[in-house]
């Protein structure tokens, strides 16, 4: 699609068609999701082959709208168009929704971080400025006012617009957990030193961030009319009534289990319990935190982008078996058939969802038969979908 097409509002006829497709899909995925969270034996896990991205990363920079972060109508139209194209292309288990995307630093911005908006890139925390450097800074650190501080008022504006105008459900903005936010405020090195040299100050920082995050999510849910104990999605995986919140905890992959247990688990648990349980996301391999995850109160599911570390993903699945649901997510590799065979062969389908994040940006290697996948989103998305559908039929357990 052209830039103009991607930002053109859906016509009344398209809105009605989209509403019909959405309701049909939601009914199907609701039943599958209930089976996932009940750890039922299934012939095939729910799977998603999604190219409907809300981030700047992934879409073609030449067609990405220039005013995406300035105009709520542009962001809403762009996301609706992408989702409408997705549900028409493949009958996977993606439940579409819209959300205000302003990068991963919204809460950090309200605590004083500076946010950069590079052209044709996602908003990001400025790595040369940290508002918290010492224990004294932590003691003086005020809790943010969501209606005045940082990017929070902008998010609330976009949430209100989306709630009023969109044909789709609205989700909260990207939610970075206490650990990620603390690292954004201090930097990795200073936070680790703080945990070692001044643990009481480190706990005070985590406590303040946790309280601010809970207040922030409650206000967003109030704006969009979402119950505290329900959530439309965890990074494009539908959860509905089975989880009230999701948040990112990418730095779990970097920390020792002991440090994570002391300085992260109690605060993650507090957030999860405030919303009746929820999901945790990270990219990479945090299998060394498996016991900490099992000890995190209210943790119902883990959404991990494995970054092609299938050995770690399969180990994590076995250690969480029957206790925590696993959303096995990744960016689609060029040789996707070999990848998904290795992922799924011999793995229990109980409590499992598979998400293949399809984008030509992440399929830049290889040649020959994969050229069409790199060149055309629709061709690639359909090819991956058809393979997973066929694999599930051919490898379903005998009745």
Describe this entry's structure for a reader.
- The protein has helices at 3-6, 12-37, 72-89, 106-110, 135-140, 152-165, 178-186, 188-197, 199-224, 257-263, 265-274, 290-294, 310-320, 336-344, 371-375, 377-394, and strands at 47-50, 115-116, 124-125, 231-234, 237-240, 245-248, 278-283, 299-305, 325-331, 352-357.
- A six-stranded parallel β-sheet has the order 1-10-9-8-7-6. A two-stranded antiparallel sheet has the order 2-3.
- The chain has one domain (3-394): TIM Barrel.
- Strand 7 (278-283), helix 12 and strand 8 (299-305) form a beta-alpha-beta unit.
- It has 399 residues and is an alpha/beta fold.
- Mean pLDDT is 93; it is low at 361-367.
- 46% of the residues lie in helices and 12% in strands.
- Helix 6 runs parallel beside helix 9 (199-224), helix 7 crosses helix 9 and helix 14 (336-344) runs parallel beside helix 16.
- The chain contains 16 helices and ten strands.
Uncertain segments are: 361-367
Shape, principal axes of CA atoms: globular
Average pLDDT rating: 93
Number of domains: 1
CATH classification, class level: Alpha Beta
CATH topology: TIM Barrel
Give the biggest beta sheet.
6 strands, parallel
**Distinct helical segment count:** 16
N-to-C SSE series? HHEHHEEHHHHHEEEHHEHEHEHEHH
Give me the side-by-side strand order of the main sheet.
1-10-9-8-7-6
CATH architecture identity: Alpha-Beta Barrel
Write down the Rg.
Answer: 21 Å
Structural class by sheet pairing and helices: alpha/beta
The amount of helix comes to 40-55%
Ends apart, CA distance between termini: 44 Å
Structure summary, number of beta strands: 10
């Amino acid at each position: 699609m052209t830039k103009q097409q991607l930002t053109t509002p859906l016509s009344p006829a398209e809105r009605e068609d989209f509403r019909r497709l959405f309701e049909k899909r939601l009914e199907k995925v609701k039943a599958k999701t209930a089976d996932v969270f009940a750890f039922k034996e299934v012939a095939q896990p729910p799977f998603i082959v999604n190219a409907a991205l809300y981030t700047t990363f992934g879409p073609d920079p030449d067609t990405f709208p220039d005013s995406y972060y300035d105009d709520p109508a542009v962001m809403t139209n762009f996301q609706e168009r992408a989702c409408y194209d997705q549900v028409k292309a493949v009958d996977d288990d993606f439940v579409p929704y819209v959300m205000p995307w302003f990068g991963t630093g919204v809460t950090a911005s309200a605590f004083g971080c500076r946010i950069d908006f590079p052209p044709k890139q996602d908003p990001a925390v400025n790595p040369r400025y940290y508002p918290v450097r010492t224990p004294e800074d932590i003691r003086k650190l005020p809790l943010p006012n969501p209606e005045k501080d940082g990017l929070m008022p902008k998010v609330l504006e976009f949430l209100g617009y989306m709630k009023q105008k969109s044909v789709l459900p609205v989700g909260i903005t990207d939610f970075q957990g206490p650990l990620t936010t603390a690292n954004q405020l201090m930097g990795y090195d200073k936070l680790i030193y703080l945990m070692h040299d001044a643990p009481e100050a480190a706990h005070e920082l985590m406590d303040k961030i946790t309280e601010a995050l809970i207040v922030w999510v409650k206000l967003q849910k109030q704006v969009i009319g979402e119950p505290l104990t329900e959530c439309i999605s965890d990074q494009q995986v539908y959860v509905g009534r089975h989880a009230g919140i999701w948040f990112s905890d990418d730095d779990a992959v970097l920390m020792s289990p002991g440090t994570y247990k002391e300085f992260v688990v109690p605060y993650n648990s507090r957030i999860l319990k405030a919303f009746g349980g929820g999901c945790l996301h990270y990219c990479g391999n945090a299998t060394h935190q498996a016991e900490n995850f099992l000890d995190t109160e209210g943790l119902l599911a883990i959404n991990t982008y494995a970054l092609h570390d299938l050995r770690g993903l399969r180990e994590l699945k076995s250690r969480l078996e029957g206790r925590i649901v696993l959303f096995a997510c990744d960016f689609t590799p060029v040789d996707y058939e070999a990848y998904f065979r290795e992922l799924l062969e011999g793995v229990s389908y109980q409590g499992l969802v598979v998400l293949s994040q399809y984008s030509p940006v992440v399929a830049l290697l290889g040649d020959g038969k994969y050229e069409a996948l790199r060149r055309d989103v629709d061709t690639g998305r359909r090819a991956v979908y058809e393979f997973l559908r066929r694999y599930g039929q051919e490898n379903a357990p005998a009745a």
